[in-house]
Amino acid sequence: MITKYLETIRAQDGELFHLNYHQKRLDSSIGNSNIILEELLKPPKTGLYRCRVVYSRAVFEVNYYPYAKRSIKRLKLVDNDRLEYSKKYFNRDAINALFLQKEECDDIIIVKNALITDTSIANLAFKYKKEWLTPKTPLLYGTTRARLIDENRIREEDISVGDLKHFSAIALMNAMIDFDIIQNKNLREVIC
Question: Is the pLDDT assigned to residue 89 strictly greater than 70?
């Protein structure tokens, strides 16, 4: 069976955002290939779109979907020590199954080996005093996360469930929302 991978790229008014980070992850996923994203992607000239690239060594498929941001205000902690998502795989069945455990919340925070990792769709950052910390061992080393680390806007740290009480804010990060702080003065109301 061929392993397929996925890239989600922000496309707005004909521009593709942070393409170098997506190209780097694509190259890391399948090794040397003839896939050069900049040459193959032709985004719509107006509007905000989620560019969805499905690929392997033998497959390359691109679709553009109008984007509407999902409202995420509450997150449920869900444990799974066996989940493996070190590459952005096309098959998300295991993550989707965990997402079904969200109950009345909007999304989940996946806890693996007692450490905070990611939500079902985004990397995380937590505000501690005046700095933002991101889990050192996320499920997926996302492109926005990598860029913000390179820009010294966030710093990696092991974060346990017990550490959550020390943070004043939480933010989600992915290619579509960039760095999105959940607006709530009380972090305890965000984690359900």
Answer: yes
